[in-house]
Specification:
Length: 206
């Protein structure tokens, strides 16, 4: 699903609407513009370039957009400060922790102020402390930077940070939860209940 939304894969039928635009009809320069300016992607395995520093990895998207060095520096330092990694901007990926790598990847995804950020099991390779830090960063990106984050996860703890959850079973929507005024603990308990139902046969659920 994320591959289709991100236009990595082409759909064989149907349409994908993002902010009122059918992205399945985009071609050539229009498609490149959508990928470059309106979409961010955070991968489970970070997908950082080992030969580039953290600063260079984050700046890459702006470099492709041919932004000026001054503008690139201002934006990279600004977002790095917000996610707490300014002090490691000069380091290479192999010199930092898994949590720091994921925050570098988050900065890279957000540097162009995309309308939509896709996150593919973003906490799957992280320890519990790093996972919590990343999810708190996601909350910041959503609430303070107005980013829509579409995250795929099998982990109830990770899902409890979301505002709305769609449960998918055998390719179809099985259930939906909206956090509303629930605390994260209350929301987590509701997620566990639905996951329990997902584990059994639908005939047993009915």
């Amino acid at each position: 699903m994320l591959n289709c939304i991100s236009t990595i894969d082409k759909v064989t039928c149907g349409h994908i609407m993002i902010y009122g635009e059918d992205i399945t009809k985009l071609r050539g320069n229009q498609l490149n513009k959508f990928r470059r300016e309106e979409l961010g992607f955070i991968f489970q395995d970070f997908n950082l370039l080992d030969t580039l520093t953290a600063y260079e990895n984050i700046a890459l998207a702006l470099t492709i957009q041919k932004k000026s060095p001054h503008e690139i520096q201002e934006k990279v330092i600004g977002i790095a400060k917000k996610l707490g990694i300014r002090e490691i901007l000069g380091k290479y990926p192999y010199q930092v922790s898994g949590g720091q790598k994921q925050r570098i990847a988050s900065c890279r995804a957000m540097i162009t102020n995309p309308k939509l950020v896709l996150a593919d099991e973003p906490t799957g390779a992280l320890d519990s402390k790093s996972a919590r830090q990343l999810l708190e960063n996601f909350e910041y990106l959503n609430s303070q930077m107005q980013a829509t984050i579409l995250m795929v996860t099998h982990d109830a703890f990770t899902a409890s940070y979301a505002n709305r959850i769609l449960f998918i079973k055998d390719g179809k929507i099985f259930n939906e939860l909206v956090k509303g005024n629930d605390t994260r603990k209350q929301f987590f308990e509701k997620i566990i209940e639905v996951q329990t139902l997902l584990g059994g046969d639908l005939s047993d659920v009915i």
